[in-house]
Amino acid sequence: MTASIALRSSADVQYVLRLADTCLIWSHRLSEWCGHAPVLEEDIALANHALDLLGQARALLTHAGRLDGQGFDEDQLAYLRDERDFLNVTMAELPNGKSAGGPGDFAFTVLRNFMLSSWALALWARLQDSRDAELAAIAGKAVKEARYHREHAADWVVRLGDGTEDIALRMQAALERLWPYTNELFDADAVDAAAAGSALGPAWSTLREGWLADVRAVMAEAMLPLPAPSAYRSEAKRGMHSEHMGHLLAGMQHLQRAFPGGVW
Amino acid sequence: MSDVRNEWPLWEVFVRSKAGLDHKHCGSLHAPDAKGAVQLAREVYTRRQEGTSIWVVRSDQIVASDPADKDMYFDPMADKVYRHPTFYELPDAVNHM
Prior knowledge:
Shape of chain A: globular
Largest sheet of chain B: 3 strands, antiparallel
Number of helices of chain A: 10
CATH superfamily of chain A: Ferritin, core subunit, four-helix bundle
Structural class of chain B: alpha+beta
Largest sheet of chain A: none
CATH architecture of chain A: Up-down Bundle
Helix content of chain B: 10-25%
CATH superfamily of chain B: Phenylacetic acid degradation B
Number of strands of chain B: 3
Strand content of chain A: under 5%
Strand order of the largest sheet of chain B: 2-1-3
CATH topology of chain B: Ubiquitin-like (UB roll)
Distance between the termini of chain A: 18 Å
Number of domains of chain A: 1
CATH class of chain B: Alpha Beta
Order of helices and strands of chain B: EEHEH
CATH class of chain A: Mainly Alpha
Oligomer: heterodimer
Shape of chain B: flat
Number of helices of chain B: 2
Order of helices and strands of chain A: HHHHHHHHHH
Helix content of chain A: 55-70%
Number of domains of chain B: 1
CATH topology of chain A: Ferritin
Structural class of chain A: mainly alpha
Radius of gyration of chain B: 20 Å
Largest interface: A-B, 11 and 13 residues
């Protein structure tokens, strides 16, 4: 088995990895739908979304490896870091959920897609002004993808939320489950302060207002009441993951660790 | 066999390529509503950069000629050569069509 690698963890690298890892892990969860979505056309749509996110993750991981300065490439970062060194938000690593006899909870998936897409869109839009030219360039491309992801997911939220009583109840339950994890998307800490201070990117706390306005508008159209504010603070973006991350990484990293440097 | 009433409606998809002038029929898909149909057409039929514009039409909105009437509708065209603009000689000034 291949030993894990460790990065130097400057504030800049951490800031980039938080977005890179969120895209990577979110992409991984979406890819689990491939071949199992309720409808063929949506199966392709989810797979396309997963591929878009993977492309964003690849660009960001490559850049993070460069910033870190030890010569690690995107593959090494994706497959050889330990759980504590992944900095994605917890919401991305939550499993797709179980539905009766199915591979996942579609209601949960579209809600998570909408909430993360709206957040990602706001972040990418601001990153276009980064002092880091490479990051700004990646953002220029990603913002278009994010705009579409957000719209597609929002349309699903409205379609399902304002649907039959049965599905509306499931949407409400999914919303309650997801809501406590949204705080993490806007918690500010030293990494944000450093990024904002050096114009690398915005502090995540500055994205909250716009995001909340977007979510309120879409939930209103979907006839879904917003849950009460939660005091819960998840911390995967600081390396303290939920119980799901270990299982996710075991599946994702096993092959590369068992056959080091394998290509096919 | 699934009950047909539980299926989403069927839509025909037409895509115009970047360099093209007309939308070409490229297939069909099921979608719950018009906006969903356009988005899913984008997902299914333009993911390899096939086009820059999409039209979708509900399949039951398409009115087509009856194949059984092919004789009556189209055979008479075969011997009406005078309807073709091939006997007119264009003056040089406009002969670049």
